[in-house]
Specification:
The complex is a heterotetramer of chains A (374), B (418), C (348) and D (242). Helix content of chain A is 65%, strand content 1%. Chain A has 374 residues and is mostly helical. In chain A, strand 1 (155-156) and strand 2 (159-160) form a beta hairpin. In chain A, helix 2 (35-57) packs antiparallel against helix 10 and helix 4 packs antiparallel against helix 10. Chain A is globular, with a radius of gyration of 23 Å. Chain A starts with 8 loop residues before the first helix and ends in an 18-residue tail after the last helix. In chain A, 57% of the residues are buried. With 418 residues, chain B is α/β, with parallel strands linked by helices. Chain B folds into two domains: 11-172 and 339-381, Response regulator (Rossmann fold, 3-Layer(aba) Sandwich), CATH 3.40.50.2300; 176-308 and 393-417, Response regulator (Rossmann fold, 3-Layer(aba) Sandwich), CATH 3.40.50.2300. In chain B, 41% of the residues lie in helices and 20% in strands. In chain B, helix 3 (94-106) packs parallel to helix 4 and helix 11 (337-355) crosses helix 12. The longest helix of chain B has 23 residues, at 5-27. In chain B, 66% of the residues are buried. Chain C has one domain: ABC transporter involved in vitamin B12 uptake, BtuC (Orthogonal Bundle), CATH 1.10.3470. Chain C contains twelve helices and five strands. Chain C has helices spanning 8-17, 33-65, 72-90, 97-127, 135-157, 195-217, 219-229, 231-236, 241-267, 275-289, 294-314, 320-334, and strands at residues 3-5, 174-175, 184-188, 191-194, 269-270. In chain C, the strands form two sheets. Chain C has a two-stranded antiparallel ribbon with strand order 2-5. In chain C, strand 3 and strand 4 (191-194) form a beta hairpin. In chain C, helix 6 packs across helix 7 (219-229). The N and C termini of chain C lie far apart (65 Å). Chain D folds into two domains: 7-84 and 160-242, P-loop containing nucleotide triphosphate hydrolases (Rossmann fold, 3-Layer(aba) Sandwich), CATH 3.40.50.300; 93-159, no CATH class. Helix content of chain D is 37%, strand content 26%. Chain D contains ten helices and ten strands. Chain D has helices at 48-55, 77-82, 100-107, 114-127, 129-133, 144-156, 174-188, 202-208, 226-231, 233-240; strands at 10-19, 22-32, 37-42, 62-67, 70-71, 85-88, 162-166, 194-199, 211-216, 219-225. Chain D starts with 9 loop residues before the first strand and ends with a helix. Classes of the chains: A mainly alpha (374), B alpha/beta (418), C mainly alpha (348), D alpha/beta (242). The interface between B and C is large, with 81 and 73 residues. Strand 17 (403-411) of chain B pairs antiparallel with strand 1 (3-5) of chain C, so a sheet runs across the interface.
Chain lengths: 374, 418, 348, 242
């Protein structure tokens, strides 16, 4: 508990350091230019913070958060792109997006209130797939796989922002979302969400209306996810293809909050850094490093016989497959996820309550106490 | 203090691990930024399903550079193979493509960008590179709207050219040409009356299928069905039943090998449908034959045709034939059809660097745009004012004894594009 | 205008293409409405049975450790690669007659053991250390395992063997030899019931019966159910919970192995990314039927197969996924615990 | 206190158990001798159930747990059962979707002597005839009292030499509570079963126990024979309500 009362300066220092980064960056060597990936981290952090409200606070597993991001991305694109009649501009576009997201959240949340646990998870997954299909198939409205171009970039006071401006604006969005999420967590509705997660029946007995609170959680999650979708496309100036908002994105968002520490607002930010960083920094740098070692798949001539054949077989295999760094990315990514879970199952920065949860012998914890764990 | 520790430790652990890794990686490859080095990037989906084609493209690029001994006009050419696909998606990722393009734009030594493979990715990269004045040569994009006014959305391609200049070029003919060629082939050579058109619901496949459908309407070929399929489905038997019930006498699939072209063919054949199966150059690769297997590709099962925006490797003459021979010697196999595009894209870029007076982005861009009567591996061709190749010789191929076999060449003629 | 450049050789190919005159290529077009419906039912049933087979292995593990096992489909994918390697190394596609049948049985058994062991190993390395952790951590570990298995498939696909196209394109889809030729076993009118259709039934039905017997009547099966319902009480009964969990991973995995072989023979294509759809279908089927419920998984699998076929046939293929998920959502809205599911413990 | 002489069947020394950073048992000592009924009483949250779960090795713990003179503190739970120490857990923990018969079979999981198992099942049916009537019903459909009988019967199926019972009276109709206590006292005891009983109903528990321990916030604060404790003013004040 008292950890929450740590030095109040720390978050401000963090924000200040992040805000100062673009000013410092030009003086650093090229490999330290992290502004670009960091901007991406911000977008994912907002998505993660949204999902954390639904899955982290309220305990409703959502495997289709990408659908909300897609709704946001396409609402924003249609509301602002020059080929449509609306052409609202950046800020009004965002407002419409957030509202559309909330509406989508209600629409999914309302009929599925009775559905729980993994059953709800697959409902959300299905919702995600349906949204993606609709975006592809209704190509008269959404331009199908062509995507919508061009989408206006983030702007402030009528001026379009360049990379640095976008960085600061997104940072501001993250800070605001973060503060909002923390405030929500401590608010009446936030406590209602958490008590629903812990015990829905008991919370009902305490006068909380679970249906009401769940709908709100859906709406808040969807609204933030939609916002992140809009920010993403405004940054890329294209809505991209609907396939960008598929199951894979939902999984990344889920990994962000779990790796960060499910239910923890601060953890979610760290989770975004880790997940995006792994993809956009570590794996990219790794393959750059390996690529420059210049391994070429070379093989020619007749395969020899006997032991030589085995040697030839292995050599060819290694040269064809194992020497190419891109062939290792799935493995590294997957191993990293597994290892992070094994060494820190509660996530990097779990909410404080988790520490004190007694490992009571729940149905979910078979074989507890066998001393099998090192 | 003791209470804070459990929080600080994980943060510290993660940040320091990340930092160490980044440091270690950054320290390892320190490219010698000599004064006379020019950099060429390629951005292709290297992770995931397109890997085999992009590997052949990268091989082609590397061969083009090696041919010149890594030097052009006294300048060293450094090449970097960027990946725009992420393992999470297993396919191209818009964030990574944007990051790649930005990386190239920011690198002062960068004078050329070979990519992208997917037209969707090009839409992201084009405006970024255009603003930075980096010339972009694509070995794989076939969506017409990227270059041709009026072929896509009304605001295309101008939205990809914020600087107003054409900085994007491609060495492949576009979908509108290929779709029309495929349709003409069905009508004139196969004497088809009724076609069933399938597509994979992606930019490339759907685009080409749309053109096919449009051309069919113009040439009196009835389209009995037009369906987008799920490229990840395990089989298409129920669709085959539907096709059988329409009595179509040709089936066209706008899609790629990765999007299950071979599976559709197999299901057609095992479902008892012998109609000719026609697909575009996204299937013009050995992987298609290997994935379909001997039985589905045998002449008894029913004919198979593949259109291609150029001549197949063994029909290439001159430089093209030489490239095939060299590739084979180096990699022990006939190159994939895409390899020659990668090779050609890189060669035309190097040629422009050679011709440019100043070795800067603007001069090199101008030199690429001025490419005229280039004697390349695909033939002799030029870039038109949109950045498209004037090379328009297409070919129709079939499969014989497990190899692609050339059927006929079609010169789609200039200005045919609709 | 198109200018055809036709040499004699190419003309010959064209002539071959038109060997019996144009109409011979035309699909029959004579199928009656009923024949089309029956053909779609056959297709839906076969696909559904394959999905069901994957799904029961999935739901078994699911019921016991409450793990949404994202790696299950990828496990099947590796099983298919194992089978393809065996077929290629032994030249099994050339075996005919009794040898072929025996070979097929051996292939099924070997692949089942392979997949079972692999699933057991994944459980041991990735999931068991997380037994006391939250369900979501387990989920992320499963996602990670899925990526690792996919990558192993990519490596495997680059093996320089002929069946893997010499290993030159690791990522490309591979043809799986037609161990059971895709020829009609019998036809009713123009409705074709192919030999692979028959194979699917011949393999899946006995397996489902066997599994039902195992779970209902054997000591291990009862222990599995006991562990699923209350692991602590099971431990208090003297049941070695970890061993039972390991066993169910092995059995679930080996069912995936059987499914992989049947799938490969039926579809004749394997690729390193095919596990995604297999796992997804199994997941939907398992949830639709009711988590942990074996007959439910079979029912769910059949339903998905049939819905897919009907949607492909009578709606539009591009809407098929939406139709499947739409029906799924509707069913869950009205039956929140699946078709045959028991009431769910309220815990995420 | 008056512990009987001879080697105890169960001896727990310095048992400590923590959940996260919170230690809930601070070194519990207790002994149960062959043929005894020993009860463990205490308020809610005193750590009674945790103690039993530690002895059954469901929770990890420090300290020494000896059964029959052998250390069982490092064994996995199933080995504890195999040594002859069974538990009827709190809340019964019936397998709700197994039939009554299957539940009983699970109790005999460690055994493979089919005929003897069948005999034991008949014996359980003899003690609790209602279970026989319900033998093909699912466990979850039984009433609370019936479930408790099933839980006891299930534990007996492993042929334990010692039984630990956790709150057998909890949430059960008074008539059935009487029946269950009667069974403990007159049937099990008559068969020479050694029993460690955890009970909230201190009065009933002390009346049928040879000895008892009082547990308060993770430590044993009192011990004695059942009668001694029944008379002890502190116990009367805190647990007997007068």
């Amino acid at each position: 508990m008292s950890a929450a009362r740590r030095n109040p300066l720390v978050p401000w220092l963090g924000i200040a350091a992040l805000a100062a980064w673009p000013l410092v960056e030009p003086y650093l060597p090229a490999w330290m230019h992290l502004g670009e990936p960091l901007t991406e981290v911000f977008v994912y952090a907002i998505l993660g913070l949204g999902l954390n409200i639904l899955t982290g606070f309220t305990g409703l597993l959502n495997l289709g958060v990408a659908a909300f991001a897609a709704i946001g991305a396409y609402t924003y694109s249609i509301a602002t792109c020059e080929i449509y009649p609306f052409q609202l501009g950046f800020w009004p576009g965002l407002a419409v997006t957030a509202a559309a997201g909330a509406l989508a959240g209600f629409l999914l949340g309302a009929p599925t209130l009775r559905v729980r646990g993994d059953y709800l998870a697959i409902v959300t997954l299905g919702f995600g797939e349906i949204v993606k299909d609709v975006l592809v198939n209704l190509d008269t409205i959404t331009k199908g796989t062509q995507g919508i171009n061009p989408v206006p970039p983030p702007s402030l006071l009528g001026t379009a922002l360049e990379a640095r401006g976008q960085y600061w604006l997104l940072l501001a969005f993250v800070v605001a979302t973060f503060a909002g999420a923390r405030a929500l967590e401590r608010s009446r509705v936030g406590r209602a969400w958490i008590s629903i997660r812990e015990d829905e029946l008991a919370s009902r007995a305490m006068g909380i209306r679970p249906d009401h609170a769940k709908m709100l959680a859906f709406a808040a999650c969807a609204s933030l996810a939609a916002l992140s979708g809009a920010l993403l496309v405004s940054r890329l100036s294209s809505s991209g293809e609907p396939s960008n908002y598929g199951f894979e994105l939902s999984i990344v968002a889920l990994c962000i909050i779990i790796v960060g520490g499910i239910g923890s607002v601060r953890g979610t930010l760290l989770g975004a850094v880790v997940m995006v960083g792994m993809n956009s920094i570590v794996l990219v740098r790794l393959s750059e490093a390996l690529n420059s070692s210049g391994a070429d798949a070379v093989q020619a001539g007749e395969p020899p016989a006997g032991i030589g054949a085995v040697w030839h077989f292995l050599r060819t295999w290694v040269q064809n497959v194992f020497l190419s760094p891109t062939n290792w990315k799935f493995l590294l990514f997957g191993l990293a996820l597994i290892l992070m879970m094994i060494f820190r199952p509660q996530g990097i920065l779990p909410p404080l309550a988790v520490h004190e949860d007694p490992p009571e012998d729940e149905p979910g914890a078979p074989g507890a106490g066998q001393g099998a764990r090192p | 203090m003791a209470m804070i520790r459990p929080m600080i430790r994980p943060i510290a652990a993660v940040t320091s691990a990340l930092a160490c890794l980044t440091l270690a990686l950054a320290a390892a490859p320190a490219p010698q930024d000599g004064a006379k080095t020019l950099k060429v990037f390629s951005s292709l989906p290297r992770t995931g399903s397109a890997n085999s084609q992009t590997t052949s493209i990268v091989n082609g690029i590397k061969m083009a550079i090696e041919e010149r001994g890594g030097q052009v006009d006294g300048w060293t050419i450094a090449y970097e193979d960027l990946d725009d696909a992420s393992p999470q998606k297993g396919n191209w990722d818009q964030n990574l493509e944007a990051a790649n393009a930005n990386k190239a734009a920011k690198d002062p030594a960068c004078v050329g960008y070979i990519g992208t493979y997917n037209s969707g990715a090009a839409k992201i990269a084009m405006p970024i590179l255009n603003k930075a004045g980096v010339v972009m040569v694509s070995p794989g994009n076939t969506y017409p709207g990227l270059t041709k006014p009026g072929a896509g959305e009304p605001n295309e391609p101008k939205i990809y050219r914020p600087s107003g200049k054409v900085s994007y070029f491609r060495v492949v003919p576009t979908d509108d040409i290929q779709g029309a060629v495929a349709c003409e082939f069905c009508v004139q050579d196969l004497k088809a009356k009724k076609a069933f058109v399938l597509h994979d619901r992606e930019l490339y496949g759907k685009g080409i299928a749309d053109v096919f459908k449009k051309s069919a309407a113009a040439s009196g070929l009835e389209v009995a069905g037009f369906e987008g399929v799920d490229p990840k489905a395990s089989n298409y038997r129920s669709l085959v039943t539907k096709i059988r019930s329409t009595g179509a006498d040709v089936v066209f699939y706008g899609g790629t090998t990765q999007n299950n072209a071979a599976q559709i063919l197999k299901d057609l054949r095992s479902g008892g449908c012998k109609a000719p199966f026609v697909s575009p150059d996204g299937t013009f690769e050995k992987a298609y034959i290997e994935a379909a297997g001997k039985d589905a590709m045998s002449p008894e099962a029913g004919p198979v045709f593949i259109t291609f925006g150029g001549l197949p490797s063994e029909k290439l003459t001159g430089l093209g034939a030489e490239f095939v021979k060299k590739y084979q010697a180096k990699h022990g196999e006939i190159p994939e059809a895409y390899a020659v595009y990668g090779y050609e894209a890189c060669r035309v870029l190097l040629d422009a660097i050679d011709r440019a007076d100043a070795k800067d982005r603007a001069a090199i861009l101008a030199a690429v745009a001025a490419t005229k009567d280039f004697r390349g591996a695909l033939g002799t061709w030029s870039f038109d004012e949109n950045g498209d190749t004037t090379h328009r010789t297409m070919s129709v191929n079939t499969v014989k004894d497990g190899e692609f076999s050339f059927v006929k060449a079609v010169d789609s003629g200039a200005g045919k594009a609709k | 205008m198109l200018r055809a450049v036709a040499a004699a050789e190419q003309l010959a190919i064209l002539a071959l293409a038109r060997a019996d005159g144009v109409p011979s290529f035309a699909a029959d077009g004579t199928l009656s409405t009923w024949e089309v419906l029956s053909q779609q039912l056959v297709t839906g049933l076969s696909n559904g049975m394959i999905i069901a087979l994957i799904a029961i292995g999935y739901t078994m593990v699911y019921g016991i450790v409450e793990l949404i096992n994202f790696a299950h489909g990828d496990l099947c994918m590796l099983g298919a690669f194992f089978a393809l390697t065996a077929v290629g190394a032994l030249g099994m596609d050339a075996w005919g007659g009794a040898g072929g049948t025996l070979g097929l049985v051996a292939l099924l058994a070997a692949t089942a053991v392979f997949c079972g062991s692999l699933n057991w190993t994944v459980n041991r390395l990735a999931y068991r250390p997380l037994r006391k952790a939250s369900k979501l951590s387990l989920l992320v570990a499963a996602i990670g395992a899925s990526f690792v298995l996919v990558n192993l498939g990519l490596f495997w696909g680059g093996m320089p063997m002929e069946v893997f196209s010499g290993g030159n394109s690791a990522a490309a889809p591979k043809a799986f030899p037609a161990l059971v030729e895709p020829k009609p076993a019998f036809t009713v009118g123009d409705v074709i019931v192919s030999r692979p259709d028959v194979l699917v039934l011949c393999v899946t039905l006995p397996l489902m019966a066997g599994l039902t017997w195992l779970v209902r009547f054997t000591k291990l099966g009862k222990a599995m159910r006991a562990v699923a319902q209350n692991p602590t009480a099971a431990a208090l009964m003297g049941i070695d919970v970890e061993r039972v969990i390991g066993a169910s991973f092995f059995i679930g995995g080996s069912l995936g192995g059987f499914a992989a072989v049947v799938y490969s023979i039926y579809n004749q294509t394997v690729g390193f990314q095919m596990g995604y759809r297999m796992g997804m279908d199994a997941f939907i089927a398992a949830v639709l039927g009711g988590i942990g419920n074996l007959p439910g998984a079979v029912l769910g699998g059949l339903l998905i197969g049939l819905v897919r076929a009907m949607s492909d046939g009578y709606i539009e293929a591009r809407w098929t996924n939406s139709v499947v998920f739409g029906i799924l959502i509707l069913i869950l809205v009205f039956r929140p615990s699946g078709l045959l599911g028991a009431k769910l413990r309220e815990k995420v | 206190m008056s512990a009987p002489a001879g080697r105890p069947m169960l001896r727990v020394q310095g048992l400590k158990c923590s959940f996260g950073q919170a230690e809930v048992l601070h070194g519990v000592h207790l002994e149960v001798h062959p043929g005894e009924i020993v009860s463990l009483i205490g308020a809610n949250g005193a750590g009674k159930s945790t103690t039993l779960m530690c002895i059954s090795r469901i929770h990890r713990s420090q300290g020494r747990i000896e059964f029959d003179g052998q250390d069982i503190g490092a064994l996995p739970p199933e080995q504890v059962v195999r040594r002859g120490l069974a538990q009827v857990p709190e809340g019964r923990r019936i397998f709700p979707r197994l039939t009554v018969r299957e539940n009983l079979e699970m109790g005999a999981f460690i055994r493979s002597d089919r005929d003897a198992i069948a005999q034991d099942m008949e014996r359980v049916f003899g003690i609790f005839p209602i279970l026989k009537e319900r033998s093909s019903q699912q466990g979850g459909t039984l009433s609370g009292g019936e479930q408790q009988m099933l839980a006891i019967g299930r534990a007996l199926m492993s042929r334990p030499r010692m039984l630990m019972m956790d709150e057998p009276s909890m949430g059960i109709a008074p008539l059935l509570v009487a029946k269950i206590f009667d069974t403990v006292r007159n049937v099990l005891r008559a068969q020479g079963m050694t029993i460690l009983l955890v009970e909230q109903n201190a009065n009933a528990a002390l009346r049928m126990s040879d000895r008892a321990y009082v547990l308060e916030t993770g430590s044993v604060v009192l011990a004695g024979t059942g009668e001694e404790l029944l008379r002890d003013p502190r116990v009367r004040e805190a647990y007997l309500g007068h």
